Amino acid sequence: MPKLLTKLLILLITTSIPLPAHAVGTTPSDIVRGFQTHLIDVMKKADTLDARGRIKKLSGPVDSAFRLQSIGRIAIGSFWNTASDSQRQRFTDAFRAMSLSTLATYFSGYSGERFEISGEQPGPQNTQVVFTHIIKSNKSKTAIDYVMLEFKEGWRIIDVILDKGISELSVRRSEYNLVLREQGLEGLIKLLENKSNELRAQ
To answer: Above 50 in pLDDT, residue 11?
Structure first.
């Protein structure tokens, strides 16, 4: 796991105060399996759903599987601490809308793909990492690993690592920092809103 991701996880834990991990309730693998089942279902219906329709179908499963507020909070770093309550809510809403729009754009069709969970193991700072692959009809595989942390409401995804590479959380943090330095939080909120609207209109 990348060192930057480990640092981000430590920051996430110390600011969000999750519950310590225990063996009660739905497991991390169960959360991921349920989310991926919904995702495949939406992919199969892509011919009858436009972007807005896919977003609507994915909204509930994403909210149940991911801790988007925590992901967004870490992505903007210290800007969260200096933001007003109104700015925090608007950013959280814009980040959620952008996340859903991006997911609906990436998974916009079905050609026989399936997901496979290959294992689960403890990660740093009380996290669990669920290892999965998306397998195409030609048998080619792409690794999609989910970093999970337990909160009061249960296990939630707080990062996704694609093809054993750098984490999505790290990528978002790097991208957003460029905008935040030049345009501030208001500029980032506007950028996310505009991009989300563009994707929804496709």
So the answer is: no
Q: Which residue is it, tokens 């080619």?
A: 140
Global pTM reads 0.86
Per the structure, the count of domains in the chain is 1
CA separation, residue 170 to residues 68, 72, 174 (Å)? 14, 11, 6
The three-state secondary structure class of 176 is helix
In our burial notation (b when 16+ CB lie closer than 10 A, e otherwise), range 8-19 reads: bbeebbeebebe
For residue 116, the domain's CATH number is 3.10.450.710
Which residues constitute the domain of residue 87? Answer: 3-200
* 142 or 12: which leads in pLDDT: 142
Asked whether the beta carbons of 157 and 66 are under 8 A apart, the reply is yes
Higher pLDDT, 201 or 131: 131
Q: What is the distance in angstroms between the CA of the first residue and the CA of the last residue of the chain?
A: 35
Beta strand pairing call for 154-162 and 114-122: unpaired
